Amino acid sequence: MAKREGYQNRIELLQGTLDMLILRTLAWGPQHGYGIGQAIRSGSGEVLQAETGSLYPALHRLEKQGWVKSEWKQSENRQRAKYYSLTPAGKKQLAAEHTRWKQMSAAIAGLMEPNT
Questions:
Q1: Residue 77 sits in which domain range?
Q2: Residue 74 three-state SS
Q3: Considering the chain, what is the average pLDDT of its residues?
Q4: CA distance 22 to 94
């Protein structure tokens, strides 16, 4: 039952947030789509989940923007998988997104917890 409650507490990611988290995950090194989703989930303590229907369109969008590039490689289990990696433009975008995220987080915290 605890497993089901954890699942119900997962938060769906907004498009801009998902893009930022994908870029952050790829800053750690190239990864295939499933691995990116796993990194987001495990890195958030199982709270955030990038659904397949959102993750892959986001990866394609980021690739179109020139922030991510992809290439086919053999995965750990010897299957062909598309691996994504951050481009120099993607690193710049991640830095900008991180700054914007810090500003947004501080602004929301100021509204939600005005006395702290």
A1: 2-112
A2: strand
A3: 88
A4: 9
